[in-house]
Specification:
Chain lengths: 252, 408
Amino acid sequence: MDENRRKIFLGLGLTAAGMAFGEFLRVSLDEDKKIDENSANESQYCMLINLDQCIGCNACTIACKQENHTPPGVQYNIVLKKRTDRYPQFIERNLPRPCMHCEKPPCVKVCPVGATKKRKDGIVDIDYNKCIGCRYCLTACPYGARSYDFGENYNNPPNKFEKTPSFEYGQEWSREKGKSPINNVRKCHFCLHRVKKGIEPACVQTCMGMARIFGDINEKNSEIAAIISQKNAWRLKDELGTIPSVLYIGKY
Amino acid sequence: MTTKPIYYFWSFILAIFTLLGFLLLYFRTTQGLLVTNLNNITGWGLWVSFYVFFIGLSVGSYLIFSLGYVLEIEKYKSVGRLALYSSLISLITGFMFIFIDIGHMGRFWTVFLNRNKTSVLSWELQLYVVYLIVIFMQLWFLLRKDIISHLIKGNRSDNLLVRLVLNNKYDFSGVNWDLDLQKIKRIGYVGIPLAIAVHGGTGAIFAVLKARSFWNTGLFPVVFLVSALVSGFALQIFLSSLLKKKNIDLIRSLYKVLMILIVFDLLLFISQFIVSIYSELPAQTSIIKILTTGAFSNLFWLGQIGAGILVPVIIFIFQNNGRLLFYTIGSLSSLIGVFITRMNLIIPQLTIPVLAGLVEAYESNRVTTMYKPSSAEWLFSIAILLFSVILFIYGLHLLPITADKRYE
């Protein structure tokens, strides 16, 4: 009896060790695949938003919608507004909020299928074809940056503009019933498909107050690196330790 | 086990409901989550609450089974079969709820290929499979003697099951059935920690999210486990009071344990409440406000406190040696209370946007702090519940669950 028990415990121990080793092996092998040919370089993309230059016109929101053909309820970029004091002596402040592309993204950690990943260039992407739509990441994001594509359209049936495919992550995505990106969680990707071609993200290009600066902080002569080194930049919800790649200067 | 007409009746009903279920599933596949009132602020709703409730129910029932057959507390052995069987059906019900909640239902199987070692949910999904296998194995060793003897009695010794178990020798007496109990016990050494991991893990799914401070405590998975035990005991009392009417002493003893668990559950909840109120952090106190005076106050006072605590406790105080019916009512009330507690733990925290002004920044009815389950969500939930009840009754007729003579 005791012998048997010992054998069982030994067997269990070996099984557990084997499973742990297998898991370790699998993860370590998978790690090599993660390195994208585009993300192998040393660049770290960051966005700097000067709140003193933001007028709250929401042009960035519109530009983003046009670029990515997002449906109602899905907005990669929003502008939060805060009013202090009372009318007529009130002050309105604006806070544009794209995805923060955190250095330690809580959303990447929780994804049960590993569909969302932190790229080496700092961008947090989503593999639309992998995502099962469980909305765990949506719950885990401290910035509310993720939204679920329910399959709604502004017009019913969708007009020509809504039917036009978007080019997120360099692929063509037309929103058809039951196919990705419908039933997926979606979010801002720093217009990765534009960045790959050397163009700025749509929101940065469109901002008339020139409040947004986008660039590679590892590039020594970049504008963004220069400003961050001179000015007091801050991050949203810094206490959570997510270390966002979106930095703000100015008052909110 | 039976071949009476009632068995064919339940088979027929089960077949019809399975068919209806597939029709509903087709509807859900074509419509996506549009049929729900879920939105981008409240991403999880009624279905996830049901899922958490049923996983808890399964783990609670499993642990009661383990008290009898693994820890060998004799008096719990008579509910052992029922507890293990209801644990299996609850688990399957939980699976159905989480299955219809995911956006791409056709991709559900990929969770076993694309694993993510840092994701609690990923670990959970793998554990569910192991847990399901453990339950199946234990149920098999628990019931196989009765199944085989029934098949032999009915002159069906050519049945595949009989041939497998008796090793092609039609000699029934040569098998040492006592070894089966030993096997159950040994599997239980893996099963008990596994069950605790399964539901502690379900709590951890929520507890690990630092974005939601009401969930983000070490107490949260423990609260889940204790509520799981409450619901497990309540379910066993409820089922025993309907199916094992003779055994009132056992039901009374189970009810006493239920009381202790309810009080312990309350203690944990009060602890979490006091810490939240004392902190005066808006993220924490806003939850307490919503629960006690806000949109969820009815659910909180009537469901969580009233049905979950007051009714069972009052029945215990005034009907200490009372009739069976009171125990049925008390345990049912406790079950409803636990479900509403699950809803109150999950949904109110989600209705609070993570950033101030988040909702106002959108122009969409899919971004709102209001969440009320849609009629389709209720329809699907009721359909799944009905299906599970029918599956349960069907199995009750098919398998020797209540035919355990040894411990009556």
